[in-house]
Amino acid sequence: MRLPHLFFAVVLGSACTLQDAAYRQDSTVTTAVATGKAANRWSPDAWKPPIVDSTVDDPYEAAVYRGLALITQTRDSLRAYVGGNLNCASCHLEEGRRGGAAPLIGVFARYPQHMPRSGAVVPIEDRINYCFTRSLAGSKLPPDSREMQDIVAYLAFISKGVPNGEHIKGEGMAKMPALVGDSTRGRGLFTDNCARCHGNNGGGMGPIPALWGPQSFSIGASMARQERAASFIRYNMPFDRPGSLTDQQAYDIAAYITAMPRPDSPGKENDWPNGGAPEDVPYDTKGHKAFRPPKALLPRSTNAAAAIVPVPASVLTKK
Predict the structure, then answer these.
(1) What's the pLDDT score for residue 300?
(2) So what's the pLDDT on residue 80?
(3) Is residue 85 part of a domain?
(4) Does residue 284 lie in a domain region?
(5) Is the separation of the CB atoms in 270 and 283 below 8 Å?
(6) Same domain, 125 and 195
């Protein structure tokens, strides 16, 4: 009667032993992969993102092409999900390909990823929805929608060849030196360098996005942080003269822009649930007091509940 129990004990013990043995046998390979990037022949200097072919040959290429259209014409293609007049490519310049402008190339290889702001490991669909709800001041897309998967297909395509977890040249935005912006100086610099495209009232003109007001990005967007805005301005603006401003001038313009009224971000008080918010976050979070909050927060033009992206929850603890 005890033989079945003995049998399972032997099998389970053997399984552990076999698994350990397999691991030991593969350890040299694992070490080579972990320590010898040359073995993978991966080089961020040599890698180039592929170009999207407008003459599609199969359903996947069609999805990629639709995804490109969605990130460049977001406010026209997904009007019900965009609260302002920005497109994804308003910040992710040149179809998400420009280095130093939060490029989208390579990002697919780095998700799922832990985000301190969310306090959780999130999939790329959630990261896309943070852009919709915060930077576009809109509503989250259903993760299983064709539009969401078209965007994911585009991100996957322009990340082709980047190994999982690897980084590319020019990703994100450059970290700025620790300076403090002066909004009074920033107002004059804005008039001289920015108003001809964004308007004196910051509301944007035609395809040029709003920098403040009801049509702009929300307080929960990274661009509402002074240092992040300064980095984008320093290396990408003015659009026809990128790099012509000094670090201090970029900070001054950022101080002026981030001080202006903009849409609220529902649920922002739950950001950085474990603490550690960056110093320039302009609203209160756990252990952090708002840094130079804007003059006013404007009500959302979209459903506030749809502006919150919940962190992944366990099916074992869901009520």
Answers:
(1) 85
(2) 94
(3) yes
(4) yes
(5) no
(6) no
Q: Are 289 and 257 in contact, with CB atoms under 8 Å apart?
A: no
Could you tell me if 267 and 201 lie in one domain?
yes
pLDDT of residue 12: 38
| 146 plus 190 within the same structural domain | no
Residues of the chain with pLDDT under 70: 1-40, 301-302, 318-319
Give per-residue burial for 210-223: e unless 16+ CB within 10 Å, then b.
bbbbbbbbbbbbbb
CB 168 within 8 A of CB 106: yes
pLDDT in tens, 250-305: 999 999 999 999 999 999 999 999 999 999 999 999 999 999 999 999 998 668 88
Q: Hey, is 275 helix, strand or coil?
A: coil
Helix (H/G/I), strand (E/B), else coil: 96? helix
**Number of domain units in the chain:** 2
Number of H helices, E strands in the chain: 11, 4
Q: Transcribe 118-170 into DSSP letters.
A: TTEEE-HHHHHHHIIIIIS-S-PPPTTSHHHHHHHHHHHHTTTTPPTT---TT
Residues in a beta bridge with 297: 262
Going by DSSP bridges, is the β-strand pair 120-122/113-115 parallel, antiparallel, or unpaired? antiparallel
Q: What is the pLDDT of residue 304?
A: 81
Q: Tell me, what CATH number does 104's domain have?
A: 1.10.760.10
pTM assigned to the model: 0.87
For helices 59-72 and 146-157, what crossing angle results, to 10°?
100
The DSSP secondary-structure symbol of 83 reads -
Amino acid identity, position 147: E
Kindly state whether residue 49 falls inside one of the protein's structural domains: no
Q: Do residues 297 and 188 both lie within one domain?
A: yes
142 and 203 share one domain: no
